[in-house]
Amino acid sequence: MIRLANVRAGYATPTGFVGAVDGVSLTIGDSEILGIAGESGCGKSTLIKVIYGQLGGALSLRGGTVEATFRDPASGRVTVTPAERLRELWWKQISYIPQGSMSVLNPVARIETQMVDGLPDAARARGRQALRAEIEAFLAEVKLPASVLDAYPHQLSGGMRQRVLVAMAAFFNPRLILADEPTTALDVVVQKHILLLLVAVQRRQRNALVIVSHDLGVHYQITDRLAIAYAGKIVEVGPTRALFERPRHPYTAALIDALPRLGDRTPRQGIEGRPPDLADPPTGCRFAPRCSKAQDVCRRESPDLLDRAPGHAAACHFA
Fold this sequence. Notes:
CATH topology of the largest domain: Rossmann fold
Shape: globular
Structural class: alpha/beta
Strand content: 15-25%
CATH class of the largest domain: Alpha Beta
Mean pLDDT: 87
Low-confidence stretches: 309-313
CATH superfamily of the largest domain: P-loop containing nucleotide triphosphate hydrolases
Radius of gyration: 21 Å
Distance between the termini: 34 Å
Largest sheet: 6 strands, mixed
Order of helices and strands: EEEHEEEHHHHHEHEHEEHH
CATH architecture of the largest domain: 3-Layer(aba) Sandwich
Number of helices: 10
Helix content: 25-40%
Number of strands: 10
Strand order of the largest sheet: 6-7-8-3-9-10
């Protein structure tokens, strides 16, 4: 469905270019749930914007290709869209759930207005009453009362606002939903409900879902595959359960080792230090300065662990 090949993207700043995405190759398959994990500042949100085609302003694509391939279920026709035309697929094939419901929703517009304004012209041509009835029926599926449509964002709880964003993204049955930290700032109970809602929508519509989160527990619960981002690169990607059981990159292993486990009172060790400055990243493996297993060769060469089958000899010197 989506194919990224050696993509480089970043931001123009007064002090120079910051490469937030550097040489990323990744695929998103039909009807799969893909997770993207990593610390803050590793390029996860920028990668989602590139996949969505939200380029312009300070953010630009500096190299590589992004292609979206969609099959029309009625005609069977296959359409391949390059990065420059991804905007044409917004609210038709691709939808996006950004971070922060209060900063995303218009505070001075009712929810009904915001949902209708985001729909394609063909949907709005059905007439206000018919469209409202369809929206109310869909809201019921995501456990929201019809009265939500007459409310302003500040009149809703954080969980309800997040459900509204899910409803807005899924109402037109897109083939791909991109969710950037969809449970940020929500308590753990509400987080679980939002995640279960996203999975229920994905299973019902059989679309692809990409979830960006620094919370590995989220990914373990719901994703099929997991990509680990570090310092602008994807250092490892594979089936989620296999990656948790047999991490092949030391950064992945360090993230997993830091997770608390029920019944295990062993002290957990966080990763010391911070990800490198993306304006001036180190040569070789970018995790080497923080890696206890690093060797001299790690500072000269970058390991390639992408899509390696479990058990395959890895280029990384981590054992």
